[in-house]
Every structure is written in C-alpha cells, then in structure tokens.
Request: fold
Amino acid sequence: MATKTIYTSSKQVLVDPHDPDVVYTMGTCVYRSTDGGHTLVAFKGAPGGDDPNQWWIDPTDPNHIVYGGDQGASVSLDGGQTWSSWYNQKTAEIEKIATDNRYPYWIYGSKQDSGTFAIASRGSLGQITDLDWFPMPGWETGFVTIDPADPDFIFMNGPLGFLQKVNRKTWGAQSVDFGVGTISRVTDTDFRRAVSAPIVFSPQNPSVLYYGTQNVWESHDGGDHWQKISPDLTAHPGKPPLPNPEGVHHGDALVALSPSTVQAGVIWTGSNNGVLYLTEDGGKQWLDVTPPDMSMYGVINVQASRFDPSEAYAAVRNDAIGDYLPHIYRTRNFGKSWEDIVTGLPTDQPTGSFVRALQENEHKRGLLFAATETSVHVSFDDGDHWQSLRLNLPTTSFYDLEIHDGDLIAATYGRGIWILDDISPLEQLTAEIADRQVILFSPRAATRVQSNINQDTPFPPEVPRGKNPPQGVVIDYYLKQSAQNLQLQIFDAEGNLVRSYSNAPVRPLDQPLPPAPAFWARPSRPLRETAGEHRVSWDMRYPTPPALFFDQSSGAVPEDTSFIPEGPMALPGDYKVKLTVDGVSFSQPVLLKQDPRLDHSPVAMDGMRRQLALSQRIIAFISASKSAYELANGLDTKLSSLHAGASSGIVKTLRTRIAELTGTIDDASIGLSGGSYAVPPVKGATSFSRINGQASALLGMVESTSDQAPVPSLYRTYSDLCRDFNTTLGAWQSLQAKVEVDTGLKHADHGLGIDSATVTVGSSDSCEPVSPRSSD
Reply:
C-alpha cells in the first residue's frame, strides 16, 4: 500500500469493523481504500502533510472516528465527512523561541508541522486570543531571530531549512541562504545544517549576523553576503567528519552558537555529534574544548555566561544511545576543564531525564534555569544544586527557555508556551534574607496599561485563550510562620494612601449578582496569612467607589471580570508598598511606568492628571449620594415605627416624600441620557439613588479605556450632576426640618439628619466645569 509520495508512515493498517474492504493507513495524509487495499485515496490531510499518527474507529459505529496528528486531535461523527477543530487544544509542539522588545513583547517560535509564528505576551482584550497570534512564512523547525538593528526583519529557516529573512511590515520572505546550488555544483556535504541551525547576532555589534552549518558563517549586511570564519567544527582536529546521510543536508552540524555578551570575539559552538569549540578572537583561531568522554552522539547546547567570558554551560543530550540521564557541564577557564553539575536533577523520569536547554539569569549571577524532558528546574548556586520549578507546569518535553524583561518563558513540545511572570523574587533570594521572619520583595516596575479594551460581547469560555500577565504591580511576600493580621498599603509619592488590602474576609456585594454565570466574576480574596510565599497584585486603581449598583462589563473574561464601576487608575510615578504583619511594617518602592505606546509629553501627563482629578470629584458624589440614600432610609425606618404623637396620615405623606428623594436600587442602574437607549425622565428632584447611578456611569465614561483628558461635554455633565445633587440635598434638608416639626423627632437625638459637611460635595460655585477648556 506504500507510495513514493508518502514520506512518513505510521506503520499501521486499520480495518473498518463492519466492512473488511474499507481500510485506512497513515503517512503524509490519512489514506482510505474501499476495495480491500487495491487502491488508496487520500482521505484526510493537507499539502505538506499533517503527519497523522493515531486513528481510532468506534467498534460499534465506524462513523465515529478519532484522529491524532502533530497539531492535535479531531473527531468525526459522520465517517470523516466533517471533523471537529484541533484549534481548541493547547498541543503546540514548539522547537525554539525568541522575543522582541516591543510592548507588550511578542514571542516568536517554530512549531512542528505548523511553521513559524508570533504571539503577543499580553492581549488587549483581557486575555491572549487568536487575535494576538500571527503565522509567519517560516519552517517548522529552527531558530527565529530578531534583527536588533532593525526589529522589522526576522531571520528563520524557510522550506527545507534554507535561511530566509522576513519583513514584518509585509511578511514577505527573502532567501538569504549561501548554500543554494544545483546538484552538479553543490553536494550534500558542502553545507551540513542541523534541523535547528543556529542564527545569532553579535551582542556587541548588531550588524554582525552568525549562522551555523558545520562551519560558522558571518554576514555584515543582513545576509546578502557571507564569509566563512571557521573550519569544520563538527570534527576534532586531525579527524575527518563522518559521512553525511544520503540525500539530505542534515548530518553532523552545529546546533548551538553562543557569542559572549561580556567580551567581543568570544564565541562558543556545540554540535549534534558531541564536539564543542571556542574562539576568543572572533573566529581567527578555534580551540577544541570538548568535555572529556563526550559521546559522538551527544547534542551539545552551549551557552556563554552573561558575567564572565571564561565561563560557559553545556546541556548535553545522549538519548540517541539510550542514555537518558541529565548532563550539564560548567567551565570557568575557557573550556580547559569542565565540571558535571547535575546534583538535584531527577534521574528516573519514565520518558527520560535529560536536559535540552539552559538559561542564565541576566541580573543575578549563579541563577540558572534548566529545561528537561519533563519539567523546568532552578539553581541558585551556579548549578551546584538544582530544585524543581514545576509549579503548575504540565508534564511534557521542554525544548527551549528564554528570559525577557523579568519573565521566564518555556517552550514545550506538546503543550505550547508557558510564561512564569516576574521572576524578580528568585533574583532577590539570598542566604542573608532566607532566615527572616517576613520578606517583602522589591516589586519590579509595572507598566500602566488598560487591562481590557473590549466593550461588547466577549469570547465564550470554550474559545482557546491564554491568560494575560497579572494586571499592575506584582507584590510578593514571604511569611516564615502564619500571622494573625496582615495589611498591605499603597502610598503615592506625597504619602497619600491609594489602596489598602488585608487578610480580613472580603465583604460580598450587598446586592444580587449581575444576571450572568458566576464563573465570569473575578474572585475577591483576602491576603493570605499562612506560612510560605504569596503573590498578590495591585491593579493600579484606587478603591472601588461606593456605588449602589454594580454591573459587569460586557467585554468580560472568564474568572477575571471585575464589577463596575471601578476606581480610577493611578498616575505614572513613584509609589511605596507597605506590608504590616502583626504590627511590624516593611516597605519597598515601586515605579508605575507610562504605557510606552502613549505620548509621554508634559501635555499628555497633564491630561491624565485632569482625568484623575475629575474622576475623584465624581467619586465624591458617588460616596455622598450613597450616604444620603442610607441615612434617608434610616429616617424612613424610624418613621415607620412611630405609633403616637403624630398623625398616621402625616407620617405616610412624609414617608412618600422620603421615598421620592431616596429612590430605589433599580434607579441606580439607570445610566446617563443622550445615548442610543431611552432613559426614563425625571420629574422634580433627582433621587439620591439616581444621582449615584448617573455618577457611576459618568465615572465609567471619564475613565473609559483612555488615558487622556476628559472632553468638555463630560465636565458639563459633571456640573449638571453637581447641581442636581445640591438641589436634592436642599429638598432633603427642608424635608428633614418638616419631619421635626410634624413628628417632634429631633435628628440630633435620633440620628435622623444628614450632616451637610459630610455629604455636600460643594456649593453651586464648585459645580462649574473644572476643565480649562470652555467649549467643544
């Protein structure tokens, strides 16, 4: 049943349980025969090959089929006429990853049987969705390398592994491979390249590009011209390389090329046949520095130290010869000697314990991360001892690691990409602080960015998505033993309290939840006071306003949808984090950075200050109207209990008037007028609850998802709201006096009055627009 066009085979033939003449086999595609195998027809697949490798037929109903390939699983319930999608599964098999320096930064990678891709590390819709992902014109394996001199150009493997340069502006791909040639001129041994041939720029000179075959090649003009700067680095001096497999460009080749970030000219190389070389002069002279007893089947992923040009680390795989143990080597003398540093790494994993990749932290010397066949591990002492960093990681193959802007990024072969946000606590851990009773780690600077710009129907939870990084300032603290009372406070540069959290139980909303499934809501949890390390985040907002009615945004995110109105966003600048544990306080500074995509001019900053100032004045109305609403309801309760000294008719009339001025919770759900939806008109004074709801709606419009000064119409609406409140307050104060006269109740004695100093936001003069702009 084999054909010459089937380049891969599952070595399986499956028979329909109800019809012996219907058989299936798998190769480049899935093939079916309906005549007992005499002829084969491509049945499921695509040009280039999905590489199917699993096929299951329901023995009770052959119309039920499950397919498994490199991308994931699909199900058919009609004999293969239609199939479910595999895009609802996190099963990406990632070979290599890289990052750029945009905000948010993007991750690039090569994906088995799906080419190369780019995906944002943060989505603008509150989560990472398909809208934050883009396929690129690259091949399924190999490096993806961003040009540091011009980030719009990306170098990667093209079809059949030829090197190409992609322009991000158009996504056009240009071949820049020096090994292209006819069979009569170029043999398969001229340019041997690994499946993942290294593509690396010089850290000191961003115009210098290196590429690895069995040699190191150098280009100074973006790949237009190349110069060979090394001999064959897959062979030990004086020994010829092994013959290349017939018909392919693979064979003994370089798989790692690591220039030193500390000293120009120092370059380390590792091959897929157990050979390691070093040059200290930019390629003029190369030294064989292979660790002793290295297997000729060892795959060497070498990494230059970020702190010392004489130091390097080499992760070595020997699984091709049945050696599934971990192997990491370290040199501190330019490869003259090597140490095996694997203490603490597992050796008994069922699928293998070998190490595929290693990364050294750029901020703390000796902090290392290792990607193994089943997990990720960390060392705090330069590899002398290792421990697990699994946390919530799946058990799968980890192929590559990258550190970018304080995040640790892991590429897996079968479970996509995973990011450990903000590893700064690992950088701050020292023996000196390890015995402290309390540690408040120094938070890294946070970027002031809107968490979710979506304002309409959200993606349903069954749509594949990735979680966004924590919103705002990530705060880590450690308790050696459990505490009784915890308080976490955020102060601005002037010492004003911005936000406060504690370990006291969080009060639930004093109203029914919005009419939506509960899984949408973002959980509100108190600080954890138990022993151990804990992480919380300040969302860069002031406290939630005391609204009478809360709703949820239409642009929701499963398990991360906040209730609105929310407090306004804090301004960019310096802040202080203060943690108090059982009366003892600890403080750390933190910087809130402006979104780098926005204008950083003084005019833009002044606009954000005016936005915050107006938001805070609106919140004063929200607070005052709620206080008035609650106090008026208290008066109504007192009146309802009166039996003597007042006519029941008088009491009824007073209570009716109180109800008119107080309003209902439903009134608080009515927003501002003037939009596409009709808003009920108001007759007479606007109730306190209606004012509360309109102030909440106005706050949402001022804050919106913008970082700019409010327009004049919003200031006019604020002025109208202010006058409405003062009118209603005046009516209330008159009614309060009438209650005293008609019932004999003294508000000072019975707590029935409203202190104008507490609830009055301002005089009519303060209701004038506060914006320097006077018109549209």
Notes: Residues 748-765, 770-776 have pLDDT under 50 and may be disordered. Helices lie at 424-428, 602-640, 648-662, 665-668, 688-703, 712-743, 747-750, 756-759.
